[in-house]
Prior knowledge:
alpha+beta, 19% helix, Coronin
Amino acid sequence: xxxxxxxxxxxxxVPSPKKMMLRFHKRALSFxxxxxxxxxxxxxxxxxGYYSKxxxxxxxxxxxxxxxxxxxxxxxxHDSNYCAVNPKFLAVVVEVGGGGSFLVIPxxxxxxxxxxxSKVSGHKRPVLDIKWNPFNDNIIASSSEDCTVKxxxxxxxxxxxxxxxxxIELQGHTRRVLLxxxxxxxxxxxxxxxxxxxxxxxxIAKGMVVNSINCHTDNIYSMSFNRNGSLxxxxxxxxxxxxxxxxxxxxxxIGDSHTGSKTSKVVYLGxxxxxxxxxxxxxxxxxxxxxxxxxxxxxxxxxxxxxxxGVLFPFYDHDTRMVYIAGKGDGIVRYYExxxxxxxxxxxxxxxxxxxxxxxxxxxxxxxxxxxxxIFRFYKLHATKDVIEPISMIVPRKSEMFQDDIYPETTAPAxxxxxxxxxxxxxGHPILMSMKSGTKVRTYKPVVYKPNENxxxxxxxxxDKKFMFLSEETKPDYRPLNNxxxxxxxxxxxxxxxxxxxxxxKLLTIDTGSSSKLAKTSRNLGTKFQDVQKKWTASIPNSPxxxxxxxxxxxxxxxxxxxxxxxxxxxxxxxxxxxxxHGIYLNNQLHGSESDIRKxxx
Length: 602
């Protein structure tokens, strides 16, 4: 056989099964790549020349040592976040036998949590929602199946014992309360939505309802304020999207939302005049939609995401104009960027983790770490484990300097309006602060004081009480205990922190077995130093010492005749006490003998 025939035979040789399988896999892989590009068209923006500085944002889960373990997260089936975070604390609803409780943990207390950790346990039925006050990092509101809303004060160091004494109990709903929402700019305005299809607007400084919204015909799924708090958007089980004026309770716009029967959520997109909703289609596909607040007849854009069954929770970051969509029961967080022209929203990327999530909590922007270029942080509640895992969304930058382009001025923890101003019709934009110079700002009011009635002190009254307390004169009561009618102090004003009623109970339970120091403190008794101080500062006319004064009475006479007025320093007391003491000693020892004194001391 010649060489040409050999070459021909090799060309028509049938490939082996292994080579055929490799060719098949290559063709299948190229087909999947093409399909993926078609499925995610916004990886490559349709807008010619559009460039996003957040296109490389990625999610970074915390190390195991920085997670929160051994937390019995609630198994309640309601579509709520069950988690609230601020720059000081992490609060999460926990599973307990009977009643309702939630756990409050300082953010720096990571690792395995004790099963005996102190909880907030004041509700008679399970807790359904919790929200931190945006203007006071120590005040948290909770709603429950017992038809009440309660406010609690958490001290800076966290709880050291179980907390049952609430600040205020708000009663107005006839059925369980599912949702809570704080006003973004007005102080002491809180909204609550219940299964009685009613939204109540509370002025918590007075503990009373100031408005009631009764326009819903079925269960309310979610509610969201716009940037200045003048409009309220809601989604409902009747598949309607509503925009409401919360002060007049008038429905300004109403439209058909997602056609599916499952839960839908809504979030206002800052001051853009648009909203984003998540829900389900008739075929049970998960989808999102962009709406204009001026026209709810049809969405500006709608797109299906996938066919999973978990509820989608949207989270919006006004500073970066990014929206994050996380699904309940899966391990994916998709994030998009909002733009001011069609298609109005651009897909950036997604964070995928192996463990499914039950819910999410988010920290305010002032709690993010600017040194790591962190622009958003989730607290993931695992669905299959008793773990809460922080997930940071990071913009990759080489420089460690402060990045001004990704950290504009953000919302400060200070109200721009009082409750009365907002109710009268005024609107105010949020007060802003710099992330570069104000990252250590943690709370608007450093300490909350308890007034005479059971209400929360507003900021201006709190300052007045603080300076009144500092200007008061301390007046100790030196009367014997038998001559006093009451053993507890009765100040004109109560300067104790809110929620400190348990301190009074401890004072009432002081018995004979208590320590003398605690008993003296609680009964305002004078200590030994105060007794000496009283004798030295007494305004008694001076009288010369007599040589015949007995030694045991000399010290008492010195106290009474000391030639000082109001001076109690150790140095002055010693300088005045020593000469008198030596003179008395000489007189008593030598009986006034001048000759003996000269022989012995001169």
